[in-house]
């Protein structure tokens, strides 16, 4: 029982580093897998039970969904980094103050994002050049998701606070339950109630809501260290400033990345519904195989943040090196197996035998996967910088990505066609990684024997 407890709630500031990182990252990997299952199941069921135009409708609005998710995840992760730092310092009163301010700021941001989305969705679909025949279905899907953005923000915050204390296992359990529910509701709404793509969106919203409620109940009963008292809700300028700085920085980073994808999607939409559907199917696979790299990045930010609060720079350096090594091992495995797995998975997810769809998706993944050798280091270095408290420097990498996608959309895609889309992101990753690793290696925690306060 003691060993099991240490596995699900590892001590990130003491003891062997590799087992602690693996124990913390493994539930994150499984959690993200189930999060991706939300959308993958939508695509699979829509692809098999509805027309290919319906799959393209979800694909056309997927970038707007990613924009919302990028902002929500970024904001929640930024708040959790500050909470992890407070937890690592051992100051429980400071931790409760961070939790109280995080609740208030998340409520405010949720109201703003939901209100803004009411006015921007249809114009955004127009700007993206969404084909007329799928525009109404696209709007129906994304409108339903954004209308209930509160459930996504709530789960991101609550699960992030649990991870800040080193508990990445409990949010996993809640996501497993919610994902099973999502599958059942997808089948019910789409195949039995004939709700179309809107049914897929409703299923996702309900499942996210359940996972958020389960998180809240767990915190109230088992993680009471995160429950603030009334006195902790008095605004403290320093705490609010730190939370807003870290939260908005990471939210903007996620939004900039997604904004670049929105720009690129406008080019994708110009190639017709089969390329749109092929891009959606290949991105689903990309998102799934990318999960270990994202998880190592997230684990790095919490590990680094806790050890920064505990004043342990040696553990910070060792943890970053181990995370990058594990990311490289995963990339090598993907490269070795992609020839046998990519096309069958594309056919399964899309439910299509259309050669244009399958050829585009295959080319996309064959080109991108070898660059995972770079992408893993990118995630670890960027998240480690965030864990060290850097706000602007990691954001620059997202600006590079946005500008790169604008450049490709305007100049490269018109000349290279779909291959311009395929080569876009991997080449940008190389530039981003060069900037991030340069900045990280120059940070005091990476160069000196102690951390500057």
Could you estimate the helical fraction of the residues in percent? over 70%
Rounded radius of gyration (Å): 21 Å
Provide the β-strand percentage band.
Answer: under 5%
Mean pLDDT across residues: 83
Question: What's the helix-strand series?
Answer: HHHHHHHHHHHHHHHHH
Low-pLDDT parts are none
**End-to-end Cα distance:** 38 Å
**Global morphology:** globular
Number of strands: 0
Structural class: mainly alpha
* Main beta-sheet strand count, sense and barrel state: none
The total of helices stands at 17
Structure characterization notes:
The mean pLDDT is 83. Helix 2 (17-49) runs parallel beside helix 12 (313-350), helix 3 (52-89) packs parallel to helix 5 (132-147) and helix 3 packs parallel to helix 11 (291-309). Helix content is 85%, strand content 0%. It has helices spanning 2-8, 17-49, 52-89, 92-127, 132-147, 149-164, 169-192, 196-222, 237-269, 273-289, 291-309, 313-350, 355-368, 372-387, 392-416, 418-441, 444-447. The protein has 453 residues and is an all-alpha fold.
């Amino acid at each position: 029982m003691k060993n099991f407890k240490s596995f699900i709630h590892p001590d990130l500031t003491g003891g062997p580093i590799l087992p602690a990182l693996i124990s913390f990252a493994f539930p994150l990997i499984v959690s993200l897998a189930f999060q991706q299952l939300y959308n993958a199941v939508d695509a699979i069921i829509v692809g098999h039970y509805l027309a290919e135009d319906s799959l393209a409708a979800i694909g056309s609005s997927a970038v707007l969904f990613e924009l919302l998710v990028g902002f929500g995840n970024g904001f929640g992760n930024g708040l959790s980094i500050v909470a992890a730092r407070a937890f690592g310092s051992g100051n429980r009163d400071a931790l409760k103050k961070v939790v109280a301010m995080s609740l208030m700021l998340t409520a405010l941001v949720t109201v703003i994002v939901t209100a803004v989305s009411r006015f921007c969705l249809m114009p955004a679909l127009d700007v993206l050049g969404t084909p007329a025949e799928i525009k109404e279905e696209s709007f129906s899907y994304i409108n339903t998701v954004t209308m209930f953005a509160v459930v996504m923000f709530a789960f991101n915050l609550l699960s992030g606070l649990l991870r800040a204390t080193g508990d990445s296992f409990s949010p996993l359990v809640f996501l497993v339950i919610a994902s099973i529910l999502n599958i059942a509701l997808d089948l019910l709404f789409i195949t039995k109630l004939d709700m179309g793509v809107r049914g897929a969106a409703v299923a996702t919203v309900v499942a996210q809501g359940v996972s958020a409620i389960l998180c809240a109940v767990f915190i109230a009963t088992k993680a009471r260290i995160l429950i603030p008292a009334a006195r902790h809700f008095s605004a403290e300028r320093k705490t609010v400033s730190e939370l807003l700085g870290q939260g908005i920085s990471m939210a903007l980073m996620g939004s900039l990345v997604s904004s670049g994808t929105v720009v690129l999607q406008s080019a994708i939409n110009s190639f017709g519904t089969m390329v749109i559907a092929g891009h959606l199917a290949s991105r689903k696979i990309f998102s799934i195989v990318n999960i270990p790299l994202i998880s190592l990045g997230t684990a790095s930010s919490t590990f680094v943040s806790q050890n920064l609060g505990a004043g342990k720079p040696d553990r910070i350096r060792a943890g970053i090196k181990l995370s990058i090594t594990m990311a490289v091992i995963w990339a090598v495995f993907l490269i070795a197996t992609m020839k046998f797995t990519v096309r069958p998975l594309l056919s399964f997810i899309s439910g299509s035998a259309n050669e244009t769809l399958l050829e585009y998706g295959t080319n996309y993944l064959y080109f991108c996967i070898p660059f995972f050798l770079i992408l893993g280091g990118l995630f670890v270095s960027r998240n480690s910088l965030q864990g060290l408290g850097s706000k602007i420097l990691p954001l620059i990498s997202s600006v590079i990505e946005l500008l790169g996608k604008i450049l490709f959309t305007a100049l490269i895609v018109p000349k290279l066609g779909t291959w311009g889309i395929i080569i876009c992101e991997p080449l940008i990753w190389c530039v981003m990684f060069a900037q991030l690793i340069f900045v990280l290696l120059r940070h005091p925690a990476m160069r000196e024997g102690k951390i500057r306060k």
